[in-house]
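Incident log, structure service

09:12 report received: a user says their structure output differs between two submissions of the same chain.
09:20 pulled the input from the user's history:
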Amino acid sequence: MDIETAKKQKQEDKTFFGKNGSGNAQSLHRQAEAKLLAWAELQPMVDPKNIRLLVHELRMHQLELEVQNEELRRSQEDLTASKASYMDLYDFAPVGYFTVNKAGVILEANHTAASLLRVAPGTLVKQSIFWFIFPDDQDVYYHRHKASFATDEPQTCKLRLLRTDRQPFWARLESGPVRNDKHGSQVCRMVLVDIGDGVRLAAEKNNLEIQDRQLQKAESLGRMAGAIAHNFNNILTVVMGNLDLAITKVTRVSNTYQYLESAMKAAGRAADLSGSMLTYLGQTLDQHEPLDLSEICRTSLHKLLADIPKMVDVKVDFPFSGPIIKATAHHVSQVLRNLVTNSCEAFRDEKGSLHLTITTMNLADILVTQHFPLDWQPQDNLYACLEVTDTGCGIDENDLEKIFDPFFTQKFLGRGLGLPIVLGIVRAYYGAVTVTSKVGYGTVIRVFFPVFEGEISRPQDDGIKISEISEGGTVLIVDDDPTILEIAKNALISLGFTVLVAKDGFDAVEVFRQHQQFICCVLCDVVMPGMDGWETLSALRQLVPGIAVILSSSYDQYGIMVGDHSEWPQFFLDKPYNVSELHAAIKQALANNRKRDSSTVQINN
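09:34 re-ran on a clean worker, output below:
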């Protein structure tokens, strides 16, 4: 063999060993020797010079193969390290990875997927993925899984997965089919992402948006209710005043008296309706006193039992005494009556049960995420809970946020103020209401009042009695409504008073300045243009510090009788009022003035 032929053979061997370079240097050496011996047997008469050259070439070839084998070894180590790094990235990626077959059996899974499902790494393999899917969401996954294999297109779905403790969490699955070279069948690669935080944030955002809409609606309804009550009460003041005066002019046995008395009763019911609107707004100025909630509810329920349908089974679980709350008995009775009435109407002439309980609860035990009013800010740690549970028709979820709207009802016309009044009373007492209901299963309404933990004080007798106040004198009436001026003037004249009138605060100061030595009391409207009632009160007190003043209003009473004022009236008179209430207010204001305590305000109930 010549030199050229040896080089050609060398090149062929180099190519061969390059393709099969996984052997070690000794194996390559033996293969080279075998080739050399085989060639020598076929070429016995080779020139010694050529043999030396060939041996040299073979040695060079051997060294090159050894170098190549070393490079291959290093490449294998790098490949192993790279694969290990890849597996680390795969196993500990921020998302879970699955490989499943058409039957939903898990073939591969990384550590993150196992961690999300709270199982040991490696135990997911050969398990069905359906075992980890929330039952209600399995259809969602099944259709996406089937579509992935049928269309060869990626699929995405949001569903709930179950951890080993069977606690669900929200996840997003992104999947796509691939051809598995190892098994020769089609499989599905999936990415698992925990979106629980995102779902919670979205739910919180949605709840905040709902609360914002509800607060805006409540504010709008509040303005409307306040405006209606203001104008309505002014009109009722004139109506009731004229009816009251007319009744005094006729005999009790005449038909006219009966007509007037019937009209007065209807006007009184209209006044109660207007008052209910203000109660819905939480505008109640009744003087609160420590009360035993169980005792008040037990007494009130005894009066309600006759109105509860016979097919309703009533169960009562009230403590022997307590808890103590600071409220008025009338409002507590009104809350209980409206809740019981609402529950009884939910039975729709069918049999059912009504369960009433009273307990004491810590703030932490109250479901503060679903409460009314929505802007409730708890101020106490201990609350008295009045719970009314019925097995009636229940409330649709879409109606839950509407049940406290004035005049919203699913019953017959003419209803719709029961629950709004409950909410208004609770709002005035800084409490809350929670509602849990399911259509066809019934409703649970819980009313929470702050528990009164202070000492119960008893009122002291001041020694001044209204009966000791002498009749007669001059009264200044201040109001921007001429009809109210006229009716109040006629009423006071009929009671034996001398009356002066003023159309606004500026006119009142001028009239008072001219007749201050004769005026014993001032009846002043609060809401007036220019100078309002509070400013008029201050101006009159500068002229005569001890003058008795009655403030009167039918609009936003709660807002009017709070705040920082330099002067306070002796009495507050609600509109509408009749002649006897006006008379009692003047006598009470004069009695309060006798006490020399101009900071005392009493509310006409």
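09:41 both user submissions now match this output. Likely a transient worker issue. Closing.
09:42 reviewer note: Residues 16-22, 457-469, 596-605 have pLDDT under 50 and may be disordered. The chain has five domains: 3-91, 96-194, 204-280, 291-450, 466-603.
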